[in-house]
Amino acid sequence: MDTATGSVVERIARVLAGQRISANADGDQESASGAIDATWRDYRNDALAVLHTLRAPSEAMASVGDTAAWERMILAAIDEGRPENN
């Protein structure tokens, strides 16, 4: 399995920013990468909220995996993404 570079919080925050800014989603900017680079930190709390929600896996997720490992992974992502760590 591949691993990503950068924190999960940053990656989620960038997706949220892109969704609001980019014309490819709900935004109006044709070339949004610069604006996303400049504003993704504004979406950090939203990204952390998403991760807090994902902490508890769904029944379907739990039926195919290790829920304790999942929770540890999500908690690590939350800790990694806290502003004082970046």
Keywords:
single chain; 86 residues; mainly alpha; elongated
Overall mean pLDDT stands at 88
Number of strands: 0
Strand % is under 5%
What is the assembly state of the chains in this entry?
A: single chain
The helix content, as a percent range, equals 55-70%
- Estimate the global geometry from the Cα principal axes: elongated
Number of helices: 5
Radius of gyration: 15 Å
Low-pLDDT segments: none
User: Pairing-aware structural class of the strands and helices?
Assistant: mainly alpha
Separation of the first and last Cα atoms: 25 Å
* Main beta sheet: none
Helices and strands, in N-to-C order? HHHHH
Walk me through this protein's architecture.
The structure is a single chain. The chain has helices at 8-21, 33-39, 44-54, 59-62, 67-81. It is mainly alpha-helical and 86 residues long. Helix 1 (8-21) packs across helix 2.
Question: Secondary-structure blueprint of this entry?
Answer:
Elements: H1 8-21, H2 33-39, H3 44-54, H4 59-62, H5 67-81
Helix pairs in contact: 1-2, 1-3, 3-5
Outline:
The protein is an all-alpha fold. It has five helices and no strands.
